Amino acid sequence: MPAITFIHPDGKSIRIETVGGESAMRAATRHGLDGILAECGGNAMCATCHVYVDEAWLVRLPAMADDEDALLDGTAAERLPNSRLSCQIDITPELDGLVLRMPERQV
Amino acid sequence: MTASGSVGSGVPHLDVDPFDMKFFADPYPTHELLREAGPVVYLDKWKVYGVARYAEVHAVLNDPATFCSSRGVGLSDFKKETPWRPPSLILEADPPAHTRTRAVLSKVLSPTVMKQVRDRFAAAAEERVDALIEKSSFDAITDLAEAYPLSIFPDALGLKPEGREHLIPYASVVFNAFGPPNRLRQEAIERSTPHQAYVAEQCQRENLAPGGFGACIHAQVDEGAITATEAPLLVRSLLSAGLDTTVNGIGAAVYCLARFPDQWQRLRNDLSLARGAFEEAVRFESPVQTFFRTTTREVELSGARIGEGEKVLMFLAAANRDPRRWDRPDSYDITRRTSGHVGFGSGIHMCVGQLVARLEGEVMLTALARRIAKIEITGEPKRRFNNTLRGLDSLPVTITPA
Lengths: 107, 402
What we know:
By secondary structure, chain A is of the alpha+beta class. Helix content of chain A is about 15%, strand content about 20%.
């Protein structure tokens, strides 16, 4: 199963084995990562699973839908060009090794 | 209240009435019975299927093509009966019609808009706590759970000051009307005429103050997103679902924190837990207890065969305490990872006002915990009965300032 890495704002990182094509958000909440709140449970409605995607991986992610784009305008931490919502990133085998940085805050 | 065993399709038939006063007084034993009887049950009393386990509730919520909303999200099937009011353009609609109206309300209640109203909502919460400290003994429902949303939400919508006393009674009718034709529903609808007239009037563009949520909805007409006849009905959705729900959400949170002083102390020690404390109260109490869907085709759900045109009742509250999904489901734990609870629903119809609810809950609990050392329940809490909403009518408390 593909594994992905989350990096906390303090630089500490954690590698997580994903299961069954789950989203990056689901992998994070399953492991109890404090940095991913995911208040809406993955319905692209709350913008509290915000991540910064490692530059090298950005172009390899699925394209952003309009609703995700609009939600990212309302994130608690600054929106950057590499901002995404982790609930909208399903982990396929091609994304094995993906690196995501968590923002300082989600609300 | 017995599971009378399996019949033909293997779906257990139960003779429970989940809209009965005895059930409302203590729904938890029946929730357990419903969950343990099977993944899908049949309720003979109202001739509907029911799902009470987390997995099936989540599955039904997330398959809107099979389990539709356009035939009503209450017991009444709009294909067979005339709805008591013109159907909602968002709640009682399916894609593609739903997609367009949903986008409008999502934009009006977006995270960006919440950032803009946050300071105002927080200041009003502080003012409410000032007034409560002054009183020291009060009713936590009337003076807090109702008074706070009433002090901000109607203004945020842009409503006139006159007639706001219709808002909570109107919402009570709406949520009673999702239930079966019992006394609660019949009486609510019989008394609804003045409330309906007030609401229809306030939804008109000229009655909504500039800059408010209502005016923002009407502004979408100018953008071509919706028509001028659709806009008032979308404003109506906020009037229906935006106030009584948060009253019950905040009431649930205060009731939990008053009953579980250890959790109150945890919150006082770390105010950043306020948002989680509210969210956990929504899971634990589930202010919105149930919703229905209607099948658009014959479908198999966890081994049960359900025909076309059947009503399926989702027990959101039972799913939120399903031990298959939650550790210690009957404990109120403000540090719980609540992501995935279905207190706001799930899927395309998940509460469009969830961000407003969380903001209100967070700033209110933060203000309370910062300034109040202790909340004591000083009298018997009284329950308010509604076919869909669970909450209290009265919660007498005395507080000790910090």
